[in-house]
């Protein structure tokens, strides 16, 4: 079994209301050095056997077409969980 | 005249939409997300709610339901399709409508009677309104911030495809106050506020005439019925 990690973030130029709420809370708690937080998503996808090129191609398609909405989000990373960049 | 109302796991306003259809003078046809056919429906409503608990993104999982493939095909043939709230989110996820919906700018769920400006009265669902008419229908959402790239927003405005703008208050941070949009053909309309909750005096928004007497939503459904009769 292998795990592939897909990371999705709200587009940098768009407001991230969730991140804004978190940074507001941190500031109220006295963490004044923090000036921005953005909240994204991490998907851990488990597949049987080795991560082949075909599997990775499939995950790339899933990442752009289903796991993210390209109008509002970007896929910022796809890598196999052992740390090798895909 | 038959108008289909699709129920997804987590839909909330499907029966309200069916009731609105009935009050407007058509027969509602209840459809299920896993259906592979639209039956004899001549128009489709995707109702509000929280399909799949808004997991992944609001409307994202529902947009891949079996019935959505049928709806995409029917919409391309010109069938009137209305997406309300979660239904609007599904239509953007299915790429039948442009843009996307994100969490409200102030981070809270909002419920209010909302004034809207009708900026396109040339769609299947809005032709009974006057151009620039102000209407009031309920709004209730957590993820109603309409966003798109500047180029896309310019294009939508240039093509007259912004159907509704928030009037007075922009409740959720929607870019350029956009509350609803249509496709190029004008048969597919999506909006965040809820016309199906303003169709019967006594149960609608307040008006200057009387409490809860607002029925501005009724003309959405009556308009679609007229549009179907004209085909």
Automatic annotation (TrEMBL), chain A:
Cross-referenced InterPro entries, in alphabetical order? PurS, PurS-like_sf
Q: Where in the cell is it found?
A: Cytoplasm
Q: What class of enzyme is it?
A: ligase
* Keywords from the named record: ATP-binding, Cytoplasm, Ligase, Nucleotide-binding, Purine biosynthesis
Question: What top-level branch of life does the organism fall under?
Answer: Bacteria
Q: Which GO terms describe its molecular function?
A: ATP binding; phosphoribosylformylglycinamidine synthase activity
Return the EC number.
6.3.5.3
Which ranges form a coiled coil? none
Kindly indicate where the leader peptide sits in this chain: none
Instruction: Quote a single Gene Ontology cellular component term.
Output: cytoplasm
* Segments crossing the lipid bilayer: none
Swiss-Prot/TrEMBL catalytic activity? N(2)-formyl-N(1)-(5-phospho-beta-D-ribosyl)glycinamide + L-glutamine + ATP + H2O = 2-formamido-N(1)-(5-O-phospho-beta-D-ribosyl)acetamidine + L-glutamate + ADP + phosphate + H(+)
- SUPFAM superfamilies on file: PurS-like (SSF82697)
Q: Which GO terms describe its biological process?
A: 'de novo' IMP biosynthetic process
Its annotated pathway reads: Purine metabolism; IMP biosynthesis via de novo pathway; 5-amino-1-(5-phospho-D-ribosyl)imidazole from N(2)-formyl-N(1)-(5-phospho-D-ribosyl)glycinamide: step 1/2
Question: In which family does this protein belong, per the annotation?
Answer: Belongs to the PurS family.
Q: Which NCBIfam families match?
A: phosphoribosylformylglycinamidine synthase subunit PurS, PRK05974.1
How does this protein assemble?
Part of the FGAM synthase complex composed of 1 PurL, 1 PurQ and 2 PurS subunits.
Q: What does the record give as the function of this protein? A: Part of the phosphoribosylformylglycinamidine synthase complex involved in the purines biosynthetic pathway. Catalyzes the ATP-dependent conversion of formylglycinamide ribonucleotide (FGAR) and glutamine to yield formylglycinamidine ribonucleotide (FGAM) and glutamate. The FGAM synthase complex is composed of three subunits. PurQ produces an ammonia molecule by converting glutamine to glutamate. PurL transfers the ammonia molecule to FGAR to form FGAM in an ATP-dependent manner.
What name does UniProt use for this protein? Phosphoribosylformylglycinamidine synthase subunit PurS
| Lineage of source species | Bacteria, Bacillati, Actinomycetota, Actinomycetes, Micrococcales
UniProtKB/TrEMBL annotation, chain B:
| Alphabetic keyword roster | ATP-binding, Cytoplasm, Glutamine amidotransferase, Hydrolase, Ligase, Nucleotide-binding, Purine biosynthesis, Transferase
Q: Which CDD domains match?
A: GATase1_FGAR_AT
Cellular component terms, GO, for this chain's entry?
cytoplasm
Main localisation, per the record? cytoplasm
Q: What is its EC number?
A: 6.3.5.3, 3.5.1.2
The pathway that the record names for this protein is:
Purine metabolism; IMP biosynthesis via de novo pathway; 5-amino-1-(5-phospho-D-ribosyl)imidazole from N(2)-formyl-N(1)-(5-phospho-D-ribosyl)glycinamide: step 1/2
Active-site residues are: 85 (nucleophile), 194, 196
Catalytic activity field: L-glutamine + H2O = L-glutamate + NH4(+); N(2)-formyl-N(1)-(5-phospho-beta-D-ribosyl)glycinamide + L-glutamine + ATP + H2O = 2-formamido-N(1)-(5-O-phospho-beta-D-ribosyl)acetamidine + L-glutamate + ADP + phosphate + H(+)
Q: Give GO MF terms, alphabetically.
A: ATP binding; glutaminase activity; phosphoribosylformylglycinamidine synthase activity; transferase activity
Location of this chain's protein in the cell: Cytoplasm
InterPro entries documented for this protein:
Class_I_gatase-like, PRibForGlyAmidine_synth_PurQ
Short name of one Pfam family: GATase_5
Q: Which GO terms describe its biological process?
A: 'de novo' IMP biosynthetic process
- Subunit organization: Part of the FGAM synthase complex composed of 1 PurL, 1 PurQ and 2 PurS subunits.
Per its database record, what is this protein's job? Answer: Part of the phosphoribosylformylglycinamidine synthase complex involved in the purines biosynthetic pathway. Catalyzes the ATP-dependent conversion of formylglycinamide ribonucleotide (FGAR) and glutamine to yield formylglycinamidine ribonucleotide (FGAM) and glutamate. The FGAM synthase complex is composed of three subunits. PurQ produces an ammonia molecule by converting glutamine to glutamate. PurL transfers the ammonia molecule to FGAR to form FGAM in an ATP-dependent manner.
Matching entries from PANTHER family are given as: PHOSPHORIBOSYLFORMYLGLYCINAMIDINE SYNTHASE SUBUNIT PURQ
**Which NCBIfam families does UniProt cross-reference here?**
FGAM_synth_I, PRK03619.1
Name of the protein this chain belongs to: Phosphoribosylformylglycinamidine synthase subunit PurQ
Query: What's the source species' lineage?
Result: Bacteria, Bacillati, Actinomycetota, Actinomycetes, Micrococcales
């Amino acid at each position: 079994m292998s795990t592939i990690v897909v990371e999705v973030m709200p587009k940098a130029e768009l407001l991230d209301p969730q991140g804004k709420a978190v940074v507001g809370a941190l500031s109220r708690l006295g963490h004044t050095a923090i000036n921005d937080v953005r909240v994204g998503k991490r998907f851990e996808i488990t597949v049987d056997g080795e991560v082949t090129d075909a599997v990775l191609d499939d995950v790339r398609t899933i990442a752009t077409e289903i796991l993210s909405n390209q109008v509002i989000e970007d896929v910022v990373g796809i890598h196999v969980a052992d740390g090798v960049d895909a | 005249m038959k108008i289909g109302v699709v129920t997804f796991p987590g839909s909330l306003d499907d029966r309200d939409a069916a009731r609105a259809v009935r009050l407007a003078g058509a027969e509602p046809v209840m459809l299920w997300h896993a259906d592979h056919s639209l039956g004899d429906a001549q128009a489709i409503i995707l109702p509000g709610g929280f399909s799949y608990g808004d997991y992944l993104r609001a409307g994202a999982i529902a947009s891949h339901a079996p019935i959505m493939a049928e709806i995409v095909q029917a919409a391309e043939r010109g069938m009137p399709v209305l997406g309300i709230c979660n239904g609007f989110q599904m239509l953007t996820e299915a790429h039948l409508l442009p843009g996307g919906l994100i969490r409200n700018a102030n981070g809270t769920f909002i419920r209010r009677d909302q004034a809207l400006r009708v900026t396109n009265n040339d769609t299947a669902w809005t032709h009974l309104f006057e151009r620039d008419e102000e209407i009031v229908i309920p709004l209730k959402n957590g993820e109603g911030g309409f966003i798109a790239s500047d180029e896309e927003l310019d294009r939508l405005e240039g093509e007259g495809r912004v159907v509704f703008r928030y009037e007075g208050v922009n409740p959720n941070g929607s870019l350029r106050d956009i509350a609803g949009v249509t496709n190029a053909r004008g048969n597919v309309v999506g909006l965040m506020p809820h016309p199906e909750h303003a169709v019967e005096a006594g149960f609608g928004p307040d008006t200057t005439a009387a409490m809860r007497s607002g029925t501005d939503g009724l003309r959405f459904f009556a308009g679609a019925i007229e549009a179907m009769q004209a085909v």
